[in-house]
Write a structure and sequence with these properties.
The protein contains 2 helices and 17 strands. The protein is globular. β7 (63-64) and β8 form a beta hairpin. The strands form 4 sheets. The chain has a 7-stranded parallel β-sheet with strand order 6-9-1-11-13-15-17. Strands 4, 5, 7, 8 and 10 form a 5-stranded mixed β-sheet that branches. By secondary structure, it is mainly beta. The protein has one domain (7-20, 28-183): Leucine-rich repeat, LRR (right-handed beta-alpha superhelix), CATH 3.80.10. The protein starts with 6 loop residues before the first strand and ends with a strand.
């Protein structure tokens, strides 16, 4: 059975309307069965993967027992082609390397304020990705974060063109650099 990610939500907003516009939708109950690991210092949780979850629309919890979920682990959803959409915790501050690589049906991503870097291969191989919204909080996009995203057409950046040029963008992100950029 083919698995798909059609939408991605980071921080409470979800892309819709074929990437032509974005709108906020209400955040629903977190998906049961996702895998979480408490950080070594016990101050936050990391979402580490699907666990026993079978839903296709995944909602990562904001908190577990009063402790915030702040990170998405490396390779957490890599190759999860069953996903249709995913909503990150509103407290997310870090996306692990290759967290969503190979999600071939992902079409649009909204990365909310709080994420300061997009790591290597985070969205590599998302071959149907058409649009991405990047927050002004993002200061670095690592090598290959968007490699193989050849259908990427639109990049929405929540600040000025001048601030866009201050983001450190690594190698192998040609699709990100050649897409039409919209500074809002």
């Amino acid at each position: 059975m083919a698995k798909k990610i059609a939408k991605l939500n980071v921080g409470g907003a979800v892309a819709s309307s074929g990437g032509k516009c974005f709108k906020k939708l209400a955040v629903n109950k977190p998906t049961e069965g996702l895998e979480y690991t408490l950080s070594n210092d016990g101050t936050y949780y990391i979402c580490t993967g699907m666990g026993t979850a079978t839903d296709t629309d995944i909602i990562i919890a904001d908190e577990i027992d009063g402790i915030k979920v702040k990170h998405i682990g490396a390779n957490a959803f890599s190759g999860c082609t069953s996903l249709v959409s995913i909503t990150f915790s509103k407290y997310s501050t870090l996306i692990g390397g290759s967290a969503f690589s190979g999600c071939t049906n992902l079409k649009s991503i909204i990365i909310a304020h709080g994420i300061v870097a997009i790591p290597s291969n985070a969205f590599s191989g998302c071959t149907n990705l058409e649009s991405v919204a990047i927050p002004y909080s993002c200061k670095r996009i690592s090598d290959g974060a968007f490699s193989g995203c050849d259908k990427l057409k639109n990049v929405y950046y929540s600040s000025s063109a001048q601030n866009w040029y201050s983001i450190v963008i690594g190698d192998d992100n040609t699709a990100l650099l050649t897409a039409t950029r919209h500074c809002v």
